[in-house]
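Researcher: I'm preparing a figure for a lab meeting and need a structural model of a single chain. I don't have an experimental structure, so a prediction will have to do for now. The sequence is pasted below. Please return the structure as tokens so I can convert it later.
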Amino acid sequence: MSVSARSSRLPAMDILRGLAIVFMALDHARDFTSNISFEPEDLTHTFPALFFTRWVTHYSAPVFFFLAGTGAYLMLSRTGSIRAVSRFLWTRGLWLILVEFTIVWFAWTFLFPGHLFGVLASLGVSMILLAALIRLPIPWLAGISLLVICAHDLLDPITVHSVGSLGWIWALLHARTVVVLPVINWPTFVLFPLIPLAFVMSAGFAFGTVMSRSTEERVRIAAVIGCAATVSFLILRGFNLYGNPAAAFAASSPGPWHPRGTLAMSVVSFLDVEKYPTSLQFLLMTLGPALILLAVVDRVTSRGRVPTLLRPILVFGQVPFFFYVLHLFVIHLAAIGIFVTIGAPIGWLLHGGFFAAQPPAGLGLSLPEVWLFWLAVVAALYFPCAAFARYKKLHDDWWLSYL
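Model: Understood. Here is the structure written out token by token.
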């Protein structure tokens, strides 16, 4: 039995996916073209406009992982075959890993072979794990997923060096670092560790039981869960409680928040939580509002009518993989054109991009120009994405489920 990609499609889920992928493009547009040399999370240098340009993109990865699990459950509910869905998950997972280390790495760097365990590779491994986990009863799967999501920050004191020869395994599981993976035998930058994101995906699978209910029920439950997660974040972060690593255990972590010189910078400090590895507070901060938005959009689109303003976002959400791969090439090539136009060196863009070299100091686009560049890229990508979405609606070839 084949599994069609259409089987997981609900307009609200596609719109949420579309928003996530569009915001991700903003982050990548900034990476390639900004004239700002410091990280947006660096509280000693950042400013609100820069920080929030980065912060809105934080929703992307958790939403991708969560909705991938939800989509898998909806496939299962409509096909009735655990075997078919499991096979789809592990084969698509292998495909995503292959794409990460080949096509996507080339799009980022114009180099080969790949050295990045990024979002696609992490999604791929998580899908392979989910292919086995979906055989568990839903209550067990939900319980295990929530336990790992809530308790994984207790693992923060464990470092790659403290586990010796197994350090590469720990890096894949719960550390952002460079390791030599034994299978491919070259240095690889682990950007998205599997814990807790793999269990965000399995939690999304359990949440599929909600999305398979009536509109009234799923809107109500999604809103309640989203509000509970958001309030939990406000409490945990507000009182500097559990769920975000201390700076002693994560070099990139800002640690506890505290009031700054202005209200805006105090808000920045409050929202600056750890993404790599994804902390509990980060997940509550992102998935909570995302589920609230899912409930709102589900209500709006429950009668099958998508508001005009949301239709382009819906299109992007119907072909997120296609958008993701295409936007990296478009942004990279456009960045070369921009730097040539302003008379800046482009060697770093031709030989590794920002993964292997530093952009020219102070050269590039200002933040408002980055925003305009991002909007232009998204507008340009609408047309090929719309054409591919139409093609997928008219054809049911098995390979379309992998794109």
